[in-house]
Amino acid sequence: MKRKKVSIIGAGHVGASTAQLLAHSGICDVVLFDVVEGMPQGKALDLSEACPLWNSASTVTGTNDYADTAGSDVIVVTAGIARKPGMSRDDLLKTNAEIVGAVGKGITAASPNGVIIAVTNPMDVMAHLLYKTTGFPHHRVMGMGGVLDAARFSTFVAWELNVAPGAVNSVILGGHGDQMVPMPRFTTVGGVPVTELIPPDRINALVERTRSGGAEIVSLLKTGSAYYAPAASTFQMVKAIIFDEKRPLPAACYLTGQYGVSGLYAGVPAILGAAGVERIIELKLNKHEHEEFTRSAGAVASLVKILNL
Ligand code: APR
Predict the structure, then answer these.
(1) How would residue 292 be classed by pLDDT, with cut points 50, 70 and 90?
(2) Whether residue 157 sits in one domain with residue 141
(3) Fewer CB within a 10 Å sphere, N or C end of the chain?
(4) Residues 139 and 153 reside in one and the same domain
(5) DSSP, residue by residue, 141-193
(6) pTM greater than 0.85
(7) 82 alpha carbon – ligand 1 mean position (Å)
């Protein structure tokens, strides 16, 4: 079987870390694209030289030319600027929209049949922008945010209960912003909802820490934003697509009436496979959860409106 080709647009912290995970696992060939000359080539060469040590047959190529990304099965978009302390993801809107708009054109010409994963923030809006600029069907354009937010919530729940982080199954809905909606009622450990394991005030504290999880790291790093967990989250999504896993993962998907929202990207549980977003799972929300989801989607909609998408 021919190895799949995954191109990563933006060879910065998140892009290069994702490339490392993909090359290390040997599950695909990787192309690292960036506008900075020499940098993606240098990182690709470094990663290539690690492949013998990882016993990986992946090829890793660095480039400044979209032609080298041609025919990609998956395209991961991390191009843009990252947050500095005091900035919200939304503060990145205009700068990153210009960058991601250009990226969308490059992708369309090179890989008209690929599946796109938007990572650049504000992510839900960038997914929408890529959907519009590429003209791809919406099931082939999704955003990475929910897997990361869920991983953060799982981490904090695991610390609280002293259980293995991987044993926590977290569900988070809504936009990948300050109004994301962690769903304790649907978050389980060994099949038991955390609402039965952790008192409400502690759950609220874990929810709040998750909501500001990205900002907590930005304030510690001072020069940029998180990249190890974002890369690990992106890796999970790429894997689900290239192996046609039909795996339920939270993703920013284009909604066409699900959860009462139409014509907008927001985070929902979805089945990811070779076709991209193959199905959206609709959870039965209570009134409060539904209101929170609607508010979070509204925050995404107001940014989409600024860009006139
Ligand atoms: N095309 C391709 N790459 C570009 C372009 C462009 N038009 N413009 C900028 N880039 C590249 C930069 O040269 C840089 O190498 O995007 C890369 C971004 O990398 P970092 O600055 O290290 O940012 P990173 O931490 O990887 O975050 C990237 O992901 O998680 C989000 O909020 C984060 O929006 C940010 C994005």
Answers:
(1) very high
(2) no
(3) N
(4) no
(5) EEE-SHHHHHHHHHHHHHHHHT--GGGEE--EEB-SSTT-EE-GGG-EETTEE
(6) yes
(7) 7
